[in-house]
Amino acid sequence: MAAGKAAGRRDAVAGIIEDWARERPDLDTAPLEVLARLHRSFLHYSARMQGPIERHGLSVAGFDVLTALRRSGAPYRLTAGQLADSGLVSSAGVTLRIDRLEKDGLLVRERDAEDRRIVYSRLTDAGLATVDEVFAEHLDNERRMLGGLSPAERRQLARLLSKLERSLLDAEVPDAAGEA
After folding, report:
1. 66-89 burial, b for 16+ CB within 10 Å, e for fewer?
2. Nearest CA among 114, 168, 135 for reference residue 49
3. Exposure string for 146-169, b = 16+ CB within 10 A, e = fewer
4. pLDDT of residue 172
5. What is the pLDDT of residue 176?
6. Residue 24: which H helix or E strand, with range?
7. Which listed residue, 24, 42, 49, 149, has the most CB atoms within 10 A of its CB?
8. What is the mean pLDDT of each run of 10 residues along the chain (180 residues)?
9. CA-based radius of gyration for the chain
10. 114: which DSSP letter?
11. pLDDT value, residue 1
12. What residues contact 65, with CB distance under 8 A and at least 6 apart?
């Protein structure tokens, strides 16, 4: 049973906190209780998410482009700028991803009929079939990863993570002189 295996493992973050308590008892390590666990959880998630996507010959970055195009609805086309705005990297970074996906036959570039300066990336039929298949598998994989949480715990965690994201965005980072 997966939950039983996880329960028997040593809590690495607890060990780190114990070490700091011994070495620097003057420091409040409470933020590690959340953020170190969040970081470690992300690393585990990332490792378990990559494999299934890569088995389809995609990179995670390419998968992000395909899912952004799929979410946009028919005709499944966006400009590089729109793809960048959807949460991806710069337009230049998106262009590299588009080049690979175009080479693989998963999307095509099309010029706007009224303004030839505008170039869209559009899913091909093969791209649409691929993203639909891989995304369904991706959700099944994520469901397995969340298997140790009840539906109520998942909803609570989602609310808390949303609140954490807002807190992180609102946090001021002091400059080099120590001023916020």
Report:
1. bebbbebeeebbbebebbbebebe
2. 135
3. eeeeeeeeeeeeeeeeeeeeeeee
4. 79
5. 62
6. none
7. 49
8. 56 92 95 94 94 94 94 94 79 85 97 92 97 97 96 97 93 68
9. 21
10. S
11. 44
12. 83, 88, 94, 97, 98, 101, 107, 121
CB 126 within 8 A of CB 58: no
Q: Give residue 166's pLDDT.
A: 93
Query: What residues are paired with 121 via a beta bridge?
Result: 78, 109
Residue 94, pLDDT score: 87
Closest CA to 118 of 78, 159, 166, 155: 78
State the amino acid at position 168 in one-letter form.
L
Q: What is the dihedral sign for C-alpha 20, 25, 28, 34?
A: positive
Q: Residue 158 corresponds to which tokens in the numbers above?
A: 């989602």
Angle CA(105)–CA(109)–CA(110) in degrees, nearest 5? 135
CB 151 within 8 A of CB 97: no
Q: SS3 for 123? A: strand
Q: Among 9, 10, 8, 31, which residue's Cα sits nearest to residue 20?
A: 31
Sign for the pseudo-dihedral over CA of 36, 61, 80, 123: negative
Q: How far apart, in whole angstroms, are the C-alpha atoms of residue 126 and residue 132?
A: 10
